[in-house]
Amino acid sequence: MFEGDIGTRYATRRLRALGHRFVVEADDPELGRYLDDVLCGLADDEPSVTELERYELTSEERSEVLRHTLRWEGHHLVTTAHASIAVDRLLWHLNRQTVARSQQHLLIHAAGVVRHGRGVVLPAAQEAGKTTLAAGLVRHGFGYLSDETVAIDARSGAALAYAKPLSIDPGSWAVLADLRPALARPLQELQREQWQVPADAIRAGSVVDRAPIRYVIAPRYVAGARTALSPLPRAQAVRVLAEQAFNFRGFPAGLQLLATVAGRADCYQLTVGSLTHACELVDQLVTDAADPEEPRAGGERS
Amino acid sequence: MTPRRNTPPAHHEVDAAFVPRRSPGIEWAELDGQAVLYDGSANAMHVLNATATLVWACLDDRTSVGELAADLSEAFQADGATVREDVMATVRRFAADGLLAGFESPDEARAGDDTPASGPDAPTPASEPGAPTPRVLAPPPDG
Fold first, then answer.
1. Hey, are the CB atoms on B43 and A249 less than 8 Å from each other?
2. Judging by DSSP bridges, how do beta strands B127-130 and A53-62 pair with one another?
3. How far is A263 from chain B (nearest CA, A)?
4. What is the complex's ipTM, to 2 decimals?
């Protein structure tokens, strides 16, 4: 498999999203390089694996209008006049395939970050602010696992990375303004509705493969609210994790796995009114616990 | 002594003679004195309070509600009538939530009967049910 320019086509490096191994080919080299950059957190370092699924992004002028077509394994996914729609569909399909190909893990709809070797899982529903918080924490010095799906390894209980680019919505652009991707003019259309920011662009070397889960923190963004961490009973944390799992139903011994994870972790709810303050609170929590000189406190922090 | 009864009555008719048995489909774990139960058939999760956890942990397929209440009353040196009332309410709630053998989960009951699973005279909730919804990723972006 070639990487980079192949004649007029461009192939990304080999990529791996948990159990989903793939490559993206684009006949627009600029678009191909863009995808290679934003998906760099998924770089697959096991070249011995030859079974790769293939996405193809082709551009063709029809009736003086440029049309972009996305295919996966030869199946047509979308044809559109907007490259941004084709890229959004690619990332959406990638999420779905990652979940479908990784059923050996318990998959939690959560962001995941790491500090001092301690994994922090942030389970929450859509629009709770997972991506914004993960971006803020990586910028603050945390390692990155995912902004969307944390996989729990059934044997060890560790969190495994799905280090997709952080998909930052317009509502968070103001508080994360420094993370705006600097794209050349033809590619600027791609960030019209969402920024795709690889963790390495926030802080080089921030992607972490796996980490033991030491914290379960359920975040919730509430505009104007006082930012506060409050203890969450472990049994409630199990429920939150189960509610946010993609494949809890039917997962072998899923409840026992979540009970083991929660039993080893400190569990909290985090109300986020200020991103900066939330990042400081989480950092302080994890750093205090990592420092044997500091006493551990189990109460509310704000 | 009241004769023991193994046949499940309607949940609101659970009495001191009833011998509660956990539904075989329930997985459960206990963390910091709180039980968390998963009912796979209804895809429902329940987190029990401390009292309900104690009652749940004591269910052994042999002990009747009345005997269990007497044991707990003695162990905690608490008022017998109050303990009996609490245990009864808790077991009825377990039954109403489909956590005991022979009782349908509320979803199953609703499928075959229009009667609400809990009414205005339902006991104080011992558990906080919640359904882990099978998650589906958001629909594809437009286009």
1. yes
2. unpaired
3. 7
4. 0.82
- Predicted TM-score of the model (pTM): 0.86
Number of H helices, E strands in chain B: 4, 4
Structure tokens at A220: 């919730």
d(CA A212, CA A224): 33
Token look-up 């003086």 returns A64
CB A164 within 8 A of CB A135: no
State the Cα–Cα distance between residues A51 and A45, nearest whole angstrom.
Answer: 14
Please give the Cα distance from A195 to A172 (Å, whole number): 10
Using CB atoms within 10 A of its CB, is residue A219 exposed (0-12), middle (13-18) or buried (19+)?
buried
Q: What is the pLDDT of residues B104-143, one digit of tens each?
A: 766 665 554 443 333 323 223 344 545 444 343 455 555 4
pLDDT in tens, B83-102: 999 999 999 999 999 999 98
| Token pair listed for B99 | 């956590």
3-class SS of residue A269: strand
Task: Tell if the CB–CB gap between A249 and B141 is shorter than 8 Å.
Answer: no
**Distance to chain B for A163, nearest Cα, Å:** 17
Q: Do B45 and A242 touch (CB under 8 A)?
A: yes
Give, rounded to a whole angstrom, the gap between the first and last alpha carbons of chain B. Answer: 72
Chain B CB contacts of A20 under 8 Å are none
B51 touching A (Cβ < 8 Å)? no
